[in-house]
Hints:
This protein is mainly alpha-helical. It has helices at 2-12, 23-28, 40-45, 57-78, 110-116, 119-138, 164-173, 176-179, 183-186, 193-213, 215-220, 231-249, 254-263, 276-293, 297-318, 325-340, 344-360, 379-403, 452-472, 483-510, 529-550, 559-586, 593-612, 631-641, 649-674, 710-714, 757-764, and strands at residues 82-85, 91-94, 142-143, 149-150, 429-430, 448-449, 683-684, 687-688. The chain contains 27 helices and eight strands. Strands 1-2 form a two-stranded antiparallel ribbon. Strands 3-4 form a two-stranded antiparallel ribbon. Helix 17 packs antiparallel against helix 18, helix 22 crosses helix 23 and helix 23 (593-612) runs parallel beside helix 25. The longest helix has 28 residues, at 483-510. The radius of gyration is 33 Å and the shape is globular. The chain starts with a helix and ends in a 27-residue tail after the last helix.
Amino acid sequence: MDEAKKSTKGHGSTPSRRRAICSNCRRRKSKCDSRQPQCSTCIAHNSHCHYDKPPSLAYVRSLESKIEKLLQERSASSTGRSWQTNEDGEDTPRKSDSMTVVSPHEGHSLEDISDLSSPSYQNLEASHERKRDCDRWVSEISVDKHGSVCYHNPTSLFHEAPLNQSHTALNTGRSNSECNPSHEIQLAGQESSVQQNDKIKLSLVSNAAAQRRFEAMAVEKMAAVQNEVSSEVASELLKFHWCWIHPMFQFVYRPAFTRGMALSSPNQPETSYFSETLLKVLLAHCARFRVQDRPDQDSASTVMGALSHQAHLSLAMKIASPSSIPTIQALLQQSAREVAFGNSSQAWLYSGMAFRIAIDLGIHLPPERLRGYVKNLAAEDIEIRKRLFWGCYTWDKAISLYLGRMPAFTPAVESNDPVFMDDFTENDPWQPYYGSEDLQTRPFYSPQKGYMISCFTALCKLSMILSTIMLEIYGSSQEPRPDGDQQSSQSTKNLAFIRISSSIQKWWIDLPEHLRLNIKNLPDSSPPLHIVSLNLLYHTTSVLLHRPFIIGATEFESPAISRSYQICIASCASIHDLLELLTNTFGYVHTTYLNCYSTYIAATIAVLHFQLQEESVSVPTSEVPSEKLGLKFFLGVLQKSATTMPGLVRSVEIVKRHMQTIFDRRAKRYLESLFPDPLDGFVRNGIPEPTQPPSSLQQSNQYLPLQTGAGASNGSQIAGNYQQPYSGFNLEGLPAFPGQNFNVGADYPLEQEIMDPGFTAGFLGLDSHITLHHENSDWAYSGFLLGDDMR
């Protein structure tokens, strides 16, 4: 009897019932003890404990049958078939005269695919995507017991879902037009959103104009916050900042910063958008311009060193304080300064802390939609948060280019468009600032419209393309792949190449006319620096996209490779002309690190052009004058700009070392052709045969380029010292990201000279020496412009 019971327990008994989990523990993914009426976790969090009742099996089956019925009805309505009655009186489908063509897409007809791509279906899908996006970002909102808004995902132990009424207020009080397509109809009798935006814009512009008038008074109070320099010197340094640094990335919102500076005091040196730390970092960053523009450079250098020291100390103390927007702005500014001075590790760390604090404050979330939770968010607060979001986004892409590392700030940008309300600085006149007027006479420059807002908006959109290029073209996997996976990766990158090339073309076409510089018709005097920088970055982006397809090419007869080569050459010439215009107007002292990165990228193409001049290969003809591809000009810009930005020395040394290797190899081969080794000839009957190359190699093969790595060992020798042309034109010594450096600590130095480039790429994520191949040589070039059209 006992054995029967055991047998029944072992085989025929039902399994133990699974314990219930409350909704809060399921959302937090934490352990639930299933206590009633409240579990221990909910008691600890002081939250309402609720156990969701699972749906019955009958209910689930009824839903499945309804779904199946709806799918059948939809399929029947989209096949384009008519119905007829047969002899038995039953309805049967009758095919139309034009037979439906079936495509290989999951058994759907082409008419089904047409329905899926119809405008009505696309609008419906877009509305669903907007709703999903709303739900996605709302899930990142958390409210603590005091009612303060926090930003913890549902997986966090600290996440506390907002009350239902808050969520309802959010869905009814914010931009419902995005989550409900019929919202505009419902608000037909109310004030339109356009009128609301006009009111907000008028308010922000009026405030910006008022703060500009009070700026001089605010600067006078600066001595109450910092005493490192006098108010006159501090005012001079801030003018350098607003002129040369601020317009490109716009980390700081000037009206709020000015107002906070005026309201600050020794007892309260920090406001919502101003802090003593931020002020010191701004002054230290701009001091390098004052050093070069003054005759007493030694005294100015001493001031710069003191300001830099105070900025570092203040930042170190500020990190221990609660997160704030001025701290983010100070970290971003300090990161930019460290890059210019060649401190790549510090620059990367400062920017990383800025991005983390930005996420901690919810800067990555759509600010307009936060008003449903944060009732005290004014229009100015939303404007500041949006500008800071895009400042983080654009700087992340810039520093990733400098240092050759994967982008770190990559939040969703679809619901946070770069549209800014305060356009006061759009028509604000811009004029170069060289320091105090009593120093020396400066060249005349007629003030021009700054167009700062439209330029920054265009930079935000171009940064999205740059992010895609780094992630999908230069992105490198750390794990070795089989041959099949490598081919799949190549195909994926080719598809990304086609998509990105169209995006670049669309960006250039959509660029406002006042920002687009025609290379064939450049003005005598340079436009504002940030406008020239934007155009330089556009041509740099084109080179970065096409560079991998030409540095590994063995011939240029393929139309695809030829086109990529021509685009790189045309972009290099455009960068030359823009740099020449910029330096002739403003000099070399006021160039930015972003301008110099464009200079370096153009220099890599100039090196390639130099190498190909002595090759026995037919290169595509180009109408670009050879002087615009001269390496001397680009190196001159880098070397002269390095006086204020020591970080550029590394880029100069990379190009110099590569060119020295080329000349050494050519000189060695030329000497060997003049004085051949008597033991190299094949001896027959005691008489050495002449080391004469075949007729196909009787050209100037002594000027072959350098080949390093595996390619050098695989090159077969023909007729003594003469070798076949190398399979690549070797830009391995010229990485796309000159600041890329892998560091394992001061106690463990790496041998940079013998390090495999793939080693660094595998650890940092971006392959600075990647080579790709066009899959289809007859690929259509509808997405490209070239020559005059490109410019």
